[in-house]
Amino acid sequence: MDSWLQRALAKIHWAKIPLSVLVLLLTTGFLVLTPEGLLGKADAIGYAVCHRIEIRSYHLGERPLPLCARCTGMYLGAIAGLVFQHRFGYRCSATPARRILAIFALLALAFAVDGLNSYLTLFPALPHLYTPTNSLRLITGSGMGLVIAAMLYPAFQQLVYRQVRDEPALKTLSQVFWLLFITAFIDLLVMSQNPLLLYPLALLSAAGVLILLTMIYTLLWIIVLRRENQYNHWREYSTFLITGFGFALLQIMLIDLGRFLLTGTWDGFHIG
Fold it and tell me: Most CB atoms within 10 A, among 98, 144, 168, 237?
């Protein structure tokens, strides 16, 4: 294993060019094979991670958004959480304090309860707590997005960078409340269903899928090749970022292919 690792590490630098070519070819294939237009590409991304049930989605005119209400909120919330932590907790690698973790635990619990309740309504014979709505799906989804960001951001800093700050990115309750306020404002923009707002938000939510998967695959390859805590700038691990993006796109394309072969359509699942 050690000799294999040494050979792999020696090849990382020069592998950037062929990796970039492969990822470019993969991206070209994705753009060619998926539905037309920016929203069509966003639909293809959402198709890999979301049921895309029309009645459980917000609509841009006649068409549903690329992700259902819950997933739209989750990925927009994750983007908001990552950007906020990068701005106010740059290179911070510690987990938040217990009182802040308690807030995130409540957000995760709300996501689980609303998701389960919404799922139960698919079966009329089963009881459920309340009538679910897209607004509740969006809100609880965005809360879960904040939870994901709060866990992923410090983990990324801790595993990638050589020099980090041993403190949480979210240090105070005031910061958390500001983040919740910003996320609630984004939710209100979605709920307005204004086409001028929904269009960029729809694209951003789909981009959130790629961003999260790229970060996760980047971390995975850094760990597999034992390159933790080696970098001072993103350019130094750009080969891993390219690889992470390539695997994220490959995962999406493979799931898209499997789902399309099963259903024969790019539409979401139909219920009732």
Answer: 144
How far is it, in rounded angstroms, from Cα 187 to Cα 181? Answer: 10
Q: What is the pLDDT of residue 13?
A: 58
At 206-251, the pLDDT tens digits run 999 999 999 999 999 999 989 999 999 998 899 999 999 999 999 9
Q: What is the largest CA-CA distance in the chain?
A: 61
**CA neighbor of 89 nearest in space, from 217, 215, 176, 205:** 176
Cα distances (Å, whole numbers) of residue 245 to 23, 37, 104, 118, 221: 8, 21, 28, 32, 11
Enumerate the domain spans of the chain. 2-263
DSSP category for residue 64: E
All residues at 6 or more sequence positions from 85 whose CB lies less than 8 Å from its CB, including other chains: 92, 149, 150, 153, 154, 169, 170
The rounded distance, in Å, linking the Cα atoms of 178 and 223 is 33
**Is the separation of the CB atoms in 213 and 251 below 8 Å?**
yes
Asked if residues 204 and 66 have their Cβ atoms less than 8 Å apart, the reply is no
pLDDT at 83: 97
Report the alpha-carbon distance of residue 260 to residue 129 in Å, rounded: 34
Strand intervals (E) in 97-179? 165-168
Q: Which position has the token pair 């966003």?
A: 42
- How far apart, in whole angstroms, are the C-alpha atoms of residue 52 and residue 137? 13
